[in-house]
Design a protein that fits this description.
The complex is a heterodimer of chains A (180) and B (399). Chain A has eight helices and two strands. With 180 residues, chain A is mainly α. A two-stranded antiparallel sheet of chain A has the order 1-2. Chain B is 44% helix and 17% strand. Classes of the chains: A mainly alpha (180), B alpha/beta (399). Chains A and B meet through strand 2 and helix 2 of A and helix 1 and strand 11 of B.
Chain lengths: 180, 399
């Protein structure tokens, strides 16, 4: 285990890179995302967190990407197909998990000859794009709601509000699409 | 100004954590690491892969077949698992199986039933290994009820086969349903799922018998607390005790099964965490602790894979009953079985060699009274979590 002594006195232990070598190709990626999303914020100071983030980056570079590269560049088409299918599942559940390997997937997709594998990799990338769009829309809606409140509270003029509202509608409020 | 002043409870909590952290740091620096070198006169047993187990069982079958063809009169040496072949290894503090064997001949009326059952178990295990599947002890019994007659017979054959193959039961892909639970600051990988033992509800994570699929991936715990009873686990879980005192809590719900002991040992070794045990203040509670600590006689051949031999007995000690003012009406007089068990335990070499433990059992025998962990709740429902456990750790009052 890798041991991290935090500035608040606590001790965090994270599995070593060597042990991850035996994992299925997509699992190190899921693990990195799990720690980033669920645990990192609880690890002491920002300095502690950046040390652990560095370790996760190291796992990404030395284990997660090489494992995916090996699997997706393997000569065994069945193996490539199976990994790409599992990546689609991962991206369906939480597309953020594939973010660290997007560039690599784009590059691999261009080289891939099998139609099914290509389609799967495309789905993974699209799932991530959809997620980005959803996040953007949510952010814009949040800002608009704040403007609504500011208008009622008299913090902004009707003119300012009208301008912002127009821009918002021009950019397209596809909240209905998002909710379906 | 006053807001920064720490309450006595906070100060005590800090002290308790400091003590535990020092223990933990000692282990991380390998100061407490024990080097396992087993004595020469014990049965060598190892954890092996499915492929290796399949090879070993196939070779055994081939050997028996060759003997039938050559001599027509065959026999099989099965390691003896009775008390006379159990060795207490003082150096490693483990109960181990010696090298004595019982030769079972195929052509004798006295052993023909036993040997037929053993060969049937061999056949079933061979199939499991070939298909890379796991089977439960119960399933094996039901695969030939008329032959086995009772599950204890098939269970004995499963254990005999493991010893013949010089491996542990788990390596033969035979598992037993587990009843243990773990909860607290630990994250594991079970196949490809990451499981957080803090987010498994108030009941905790049910320890799986398929431990070969499980890997420890992250933890910020600084000690392990093993409790005998589910009731104590519920109390600790409801208080989310691991949040205040960074730990992982285990319960075997009585006498612990193989999977619970194996998983506890793994967590203890991988994370190098100080480990404490909380059992009832009675001979059976002390026996449960002893099984966690150095293994059971029945599965002595598996002890090196199941025992957590650097575990401390935190409570409830006999002396705690007076020290923590457990009311007389919550104490129960020991019955004949308790007294007999207590006397037997006092005669065990591993207890004789541990003076504080021997003294506590002697005191129990003298007072002839016992009490459950729950007796502490006579002093309030939060007494266990807020007073008893922190005080025991703060005063380093463990065996």
């Amino acid at each position: 285990m890798e041991i991290f002594r935090l500035s608040n006195g606590m001790i965090v232990q994270i599995i070593s890179k060597e042990k991850m070598e035996r994992w299925d190709p997509e699992v190190p990626l899921m693990f990195i995302d799990y720690i980033l999303e669920k645990k990192l914020a609880s690890y002491g100071s920002s300095k502690d967190q950046s040390r652990i983030r560095k370790y996760l980056d190291d796992i990404l570079e030395k284990v997660a990407i090489p494992k995916l590269t090996d699997a997706l560049e393997s000569e065994d088409e069945e193996e490539r197909l199976s990994v790409s299918e599992r990546l689609v599942e991962v991206s369906k559940n939480n597309a953020d998990k594939v973010k660290p390997v997007l560039k690599f997937l784009e590059k691999t997709m261009k080289k891939e000859k099998s139609k099914d594998i290509k389609e799967n990799l495309e789905k993974v990338i699209k799932n991530h794009e959809k997620l980005l769009k959803r996040k953007e829309r949510a952010e814009r809606r949040k800002k608009m709601r704040q403007l609504d409140q500011d208008l009622v509270a008299g913090k902004i003029s009707a003119e300012e509000y009208g301008k912002a509202r127009k821009e918002y509608l021009q950019d397209g409020d596809d909240s209905e699409e998002d909710e379906t | 100004m006053c807001a920064n002043k720490k309450t006595p409870e906070e100060k005590r909590k800090e002290k308790v954590i400091k003590i535990l952290r020092e223990e933990f740091e000692n282990r991380l620096e390998n100061k407490s690491d024990k080097n396992y070198e087993l004595p020469d006169n014990v049965l060598p047993v190892e954890e092996i892969s499915t492929e290796e187990a399949y090879d070993r069982i196939s070779q055994l079958a081939r050997k028996l077949y060759d003997l039938v063809m050559k001599t027509g009169r065959i026999s099989l040496d099965v390691p003896l698992r009775s008390s006379s072949n159990i060795i207490y290894d003082e150096l490693n503090d483990l109960l181990l199986l010696g090298e004595k064997v019982n030769t079972k001949v195929f052509h004798s009326l006295t052993s023909v039933e036993d040997i037929t059952r053993l060969i049937r178990v061999m056949e079933i295990v061979h199939e499991l290994l070939k298909k890379r599947m796991h089977g439960t002890k119960r399933e094996i019994y039901y695969s030939d009820v008329n032959l086995f007659k009772s599950q204890s017979n098939s269970d004995n054959c499963i254990e005999d086969l493991s010893t013949v193959l010089h491996t542990i039961r788990n390596s033969t892909n035979v598992v037993a349903s587990a009843k243990g639970t773990a909860i607290g600051r630990l994250r594991i990988k079970d196949q490809n799922d990451i499981i957080d033992l803090e987010s498994m509800g108030s009941g905790g994570w049910s320890i799986t018998p398929f431990l070969d699929n499980v890997e420890i991936v992250e933890s910020d715990a600084e000690f392990i607390l093993v409790v005998e009873k589910d009731a104590a686990l519920i109390r600790l879980s409801e208080a989310k005790w691991w949040r205040d005192y960074p730990c992982i809590i285990f319960s075997g719900k009585g006498a612990a099964d193989v999977a619970t002991r194996m998983f506890l040992r793994r967590v203890n070794k991988v994370l190098k965490l100080p480990t404490f045990c909380l059992v009832d203040s009675d001979p059976y509670g002390h026996y449960i602790y002893s099984v966690y600590l150095r293994g059971s006689k029945r599965l002595s051949y598996e002890s090196p894979f199941l025992a957590t031999n650097d575990m401390n007995l935190l409570g409830v000690l006999t002396r705690d009953l007076d020290q923590y003012k457990v009311p007389k009406e919550c104490r129960i007089p020991m019955n004949k079985t308790d007294i007999k068990r207590c006397k037997e335990m006092l005669e065990e070499d591993f207890i004789k060699s541990n003076k504080p433990w021997h003294d506590d059992l002697n005191l129990m025998l003298k007072k002839k009274e016992k009490a459950e962990i729950q007796a502490l709740s006579s002093r309030g429902f939060e007494y266990l979590t807020d007073e008893y456990l922190p005080t025991k750790i703060e005063t380093q009052d463990w065996i």
